[in-house]
Amino acid sequence: MVMFNSKKKDIIYSPINGNCIDLKQLNDGVFSELLLGNGIAFRFEGNLVCSPCYGEVVLVAPTKHAVGIKMKNGAEILVHVGLDTAELNGKGMKTLIKYGERVRPGDQLIVIDRNFMETNNIDLSTIVVVTNSNEYIFNPNGNVNVKVKDELFEIKKRDESESHIKNKQ
User: pTM of the entire structure?
Assistant: First the structure.
């Protein structure tokens, strides 16, 4: 059993084994234009997507392609598997968690049928965004090879003085 440092609960961790990419590289305007928030995307070869943070599951999409997690600091994290996967209505995916469950980095969220996805030419770029990112300070870095539970970036609540300073610049 891996013990986590309790001081590291405001960290976003890798949910997969693969490569981080910048959201702007995605072929989907909703994510590449940061309409749902800022974050990071991943390309991977496996079939398992894990929790990128400590928190409570506040959304499990009926189409099984997305999970929302609320961190203790209030950050709202969306884990979205693939592009245009909502249209599959859950085919090729299985959720492994339920609404209200507490999760930790590395807990299994979604398993995908890689063969089904590849046969149907589904882009499995997986996205982790902070949907209320305007309330937080963080710096996601792309183009890095990662493994599940690798630390990606710290996410801190923006205080009023920081917001005031940023707005003046």
Answer: 0.88
Instruction: Say if residue 55 is exposed, middle or buried (CB neighbours under 10 Å; 0-12, 13-18, 19+).
Output: buried
pLDDT given for residue 53 in this prediction: 98
* 65 given a catalytic annotation: no
Q: Which tokens hold the place of 17?
A: 């084994």
Largest CA distance in the chain: 52
- pLDDT tens for 57-85 read 999 999 999 999 999 999 999 999 999 89
Cβ-based burial of 167 (10 A; exposed 0-12, middle 13-18, buried ≥19): exposed
Give per-residue pLDDT as tens, 98-125: 999 999 999 999 999 999 999 999 999 9
Catalytic residue among 80, 92, 128, 130: 80
> Contact, 102 vs 136, CB < 8 A?
no
CATH architecture of the domain covering 12-168 = Distorted Sandwich (2.70)
Query: Minimal CA–CA distance to 55: which of 102, 9, 95?
Result: 102
